[in-house]
Design goal:
Strand 3 and strand 4 form a beta hairpin. Helices cover about 35% and strands about 35% of the residues. It is built from two helices and four strands. It has a four-stranded mixed sheet with strand order 1-2-3-4, with helices on one face. By secondary structure, it is of the alpha+beta class. It has one domain (about 1-100): 2-Layer Sandwich (Double Stranded RNA Binding Domain), CATH 3.30.160.
């Protein structure tokens, strides 16, 4: 699975990039053979007093099936990317199971 990270309205520090990559790889490791590539976009939208000022979009390009997209907002990047990854995990699992594709952990 290829992973593309993008940032908008801020410079993504190497430490943030490493944490995002680790989170994505951990959450989606069991789906690797079903995903051609994933795109993760992080944005700073500057909410009032920092509340919900961070946005994350995860797009999964699923082999032979198209793409799935999840948006999430939060106070910081760690919270926001974690929430988006968990939502995408549930959506991918349901999507693949509805097509009778085995997604159990190995």
């Amino acid at each position: 699975m290829q992973l593309v990270l993008r940032s908008k309205n801020f410079h993504m520090a190497q430490s943030v990039r490493a944490k995002v990559e680790a989170t994505i790889k951990k959450v989606f490791s069991r789906f690797g053979k079903h995903i051609d590539h994933m795109e993760v976009s992080l944005r700073d939208v500057g909410g009032e007093d920092g509340a919900n000022g961070k946005e994350a979009t995860i797009t999964a390009h699923v082999r032979h099936a198209g793409r799935l997209l999840i948006d999430s907002r939060g106070k910081d990047y760690a919270e926001t990317i974690h929430r988006a990854a968990e939502c995408m995990n549930s959506r991918l699992k349901g999507y693949l199971q509805s097509r009778r594709i085995d997604v159990r952990s190995r």
